[in-house]
Design goal:
Growth Hormone, Chain: A; 17 helices; about 425 residues; single chain; mainly alpha
Length: about 425
């Protein structure tokens, strides 16, 4: 099969394999860390969680470090990305260990969330750095498409595996907050491994080129406003990339609203047992991760068959149907099936979006653009949580919310079909096939 042949060729690239290892370890640790947060904030028996409380926690953890995005981009276009992967993971390990100590000490929630915020803030540098580095470890555009299928999807599967590990530690460890603290320490240990794995990559291998490195950190920070403005202008000059990015951001909004819905269903609608609720959420995460894996296999073929923009449109249209047919009953079995299919649709669209953005943005702007990409993702997710908090009843069943999500998916699909049509009208024949 051509896909397997391309995959074998990609895995023969030494730089790609090493970068993938760093991603897998980093996102494995992320999965463990996120489960530690979820079990402490949402599933603690002594806490009465509401959709509003979930939205507040997401806002505290996501919105502030969304502001780090532009700074991360400017610095990533100046700092050696290998060093960002090394020191970023080690710093995260330190903050995760500190968060574990705060959990064990039973400090107020705001102090715990502040420490956790530091871990997720550094995560912006890591994920943006991984995306910006990928074009430096592949040789051709086809390999970049395959790399965007394998790397983020494998990272998501690693995060899902980390979530499973986190669940196992939480369920089999000591009682109460001690289990959450132990899970957080496990995340810290894996962050250390991720940092050490980056040492296998040459210091200058991931870029940026030496002539754009600005060694003085203060000078780089001072240029943030100008760099952000340049990045936005660069993106605005590429309408296909900017419209694709907007569509993916709206899909992220839909995914965020569904995430809160499933969480509330697991917590209150399907069971009264806290451990069973955690197991149900773990199953939903696992099924979504399986959908991500299928997307990685299917997307290279689908993007070649329908074009990258056409595949995004099809994924969004498919998601609208899934929400209406499988989400609306709010039954365990149908929602779990929807988790798998929406994972496939969401990740398939994201793989294509990553490739569109990477292929149309110059290398010395990629750090800034991908940081903006992450920032939009976080704002969309938090906004979805806020909307869900206003619309969801205590048990998570809201037909109005799901109808609105399905309608938004349909609008995205319609818009992306038009973007594809416009791109084909303006581009030469050999380029239009790529859209």
């Amino acid at each position: 099969m051509p896909v397997m042949r391309d995959l074998r060729a990609l895995l023969k690239l030494d730089g790609f394999r090493k970068l993938l290892t760093v991603r897998l370890l980093s996102q494995l640790a992320d999965g463990v860390f996120q489960i530690a947060l979820a079990t402490y904030v949402v599933f603690s028996p002594e806490k009465e969680t509401s959709a509003g409380a979930i939205a507040s926690a997401m806002a505290v953890l996501l919105l502030p470090y969304s502001l780090v995005g532009p700074f991360a981009g400017v610095l990533l276009d100046r700092w050696r990305r290998r060093q960002v992967l090394l020191y970023g993971n080690l710093v995260r390990a330190g903050f995760a260990a500190a968060t574990a100590a705060l959990i064990a000490a039973g400090v107020p929630d705001w102090l715990f969330l502040l420490s956790a915020l530091c871990v997720t803030a550094v995560n912006r540098f890591i994920l943006a750095g991984l995306s910006a580095s990928l074009p430096r470890v592949v040789d051709t555009d086809d390999q970049l498409v395959m790399g965007n299928s394998i790397s983020p999807t494998a990272g998501t599967l690693a995060a899902t595996s980390g979530a499973v590990v986190g669940f196992a530690v939480s369920l089999t460890g000591p009682e109460g907050s001690a289990a959450d603290a132990l899970t957080m320490l496990a995340a810290a240990a894996v962050y250390v491994c991720a940092g050490l794995a980056s040492l296998r990559i040459a210091r200058d291998r991931l870029g940026p080129d030496a002539d754009v490195i600005q060694p003085r950190v203060l000078a780089a920070v001072a240029s943030t406003a100008r760099g952000l403005k340049d990045g936005l202008r660069h993106l605005a000059e590429r309408p296909v990339a900017s419209r694709t990015l907007l569509s993916m951001t709206l899909m992220r909004f839909c995914y965020g609203a569904q995430t809160v819905t499933v969480l509330m269903l697991c917590r209150y609608a399907w069971t009264d047992d806290n451990d069973e609720a955690m197991a149900l959420l773990g199953l939903a995460i696992g099924l979504s991760g399986a959908g991500f894996f299928v997307a990685a296999v299917v997307t290279p073929w689908a993007a070649a068959r329908f074009g990258r923009l056409g595949w995004i449109a099809l994924c969004s249209a498919f998601a609208a149907v899934v929400v209406l047919t499988l989400g609306m009953p709010f039954a365990r079995e149908s929602v779990m099936a929807a988790a798998f299919l929406l994972g496939l649709a969401t990740q398939g669209a994201k793989i294509a979006t990553d490739t569109v953005v990477q292929s149309t943005v110059a290398d010395d702007y990629r750090g800034r653009v991908f940081s903006l990409y992450d920032m939009l993702f976080n704002i969309a997710f938090v906004s979805a949580a806020g909307v869900s908090a206003l619309m969801l009843p205590a048990d998570g069943r809201s037909h109005v919310l799901l109808l609105a999500i399905a309608a938004l998916y349909a609008v995205i699909a319609w818009a992306m079909f038009h973007v594809k049509h416009d791109a084909e009208q303006l581009a030469p024949a050999h380029v239009s096939r790529e859209t």
